[in-house]
Amino acid sequence: MESETKSSGLLYFFLGIAALILILFLLTPEQGGRSKARRISSNSNLKQIGLAIRQYAIDYIDHFPNQPGADGFRTLIEQGFLPDYILYISPMDQTTSKPKNGQFSESNTSYAYVGAGFKEGDFPEPGKIPLAFEKPWFDKGYMNILYMDGHVQSFEKMKFKTCVDVVEFCRKGNNPDAPYWQTLLSNARLIDKTKPK
Q: Does pLDDT of 8 surpass 80?
């Protein structure tokens, strides 16, 4: 009798371990799936931001919003090109929140807009020049970059610390002495000054 109790106790113990392993196994892919869905959603947000910037440029003689960072995004919001605040927050970012009382600032966006001071046609290869990207301090092991031609590219396992790092990454091997890089870097530096401590 005592041996049956020990063996049934042992059986329940092993069943419990098996159930725990199964639960962990099932949760792991789900978390990976959620992470991938968030990355895709962030990619979509950047594409919508890119479309709004291009629509703005159509109305303003090919010029992009003329202030970098949140100020450029605020222009899109206030003029109705992309008024939904939630699209300026990456789903991977758990700290940024919608603005209170409509006061949109750098603390209300996960994205860095560096395209200020440019217009359509300023670049010989717009598919290689960054327009906006996820702020690197919200790094989750990947980076989505929106380019001047409107496409978004994802990079995994990139460890950027600043917006300047992202612009420098794009600059490498891409006509690095062209004068527009200085404006992009200057815009990135302005955004970097707003990095939370």
A: no
Q: Which of 16, 195, 72, 17 is nearest to 64 (CA)?
A: 72
Q: What are phi and psi of 35, to 5 degrees?
A: -60, -45
Of 166, 50, 42, nearest in space to 110 by CA: 42
Instruction: Confirm whether pTM is higher than 0.85.
Output: no
**According to the model, what pLDDT value does residue 60 have?**
95
Place of tokens 């790094």: 139
Residue 93: name the closest of 52, 143, 156, 51 by CA. Answer: 143
The Cα–Cα gap between 114 and 118 comes to: 9
The C-alpha R_g of the chain, in whole angstroms, comes to: 23
C-alpha span between 188 and 81 (Å, rounded): 23
> Percent of the chain scored above 90 by pLDDT?
53
How far lies 140's CA from each of 68, 85, 135, 178, in Å?
24, 22, 11, 31
In this predicted model, what pLDDT tens digit does every residue of 124-139 receive, in sequence order?
A: 899 999 999 999 987 6
pLDDT of residue 197: 76
3-state secondary structure of 87: helix
Instruction: Give the mean model confidence (pLDDT) for residues 132-156.
Output: 88
**Helical (H) or strand (E) element with 189:** helix 180-192
Phi, psi at residue 140, to the nearest 5°? Answer: -120, 25
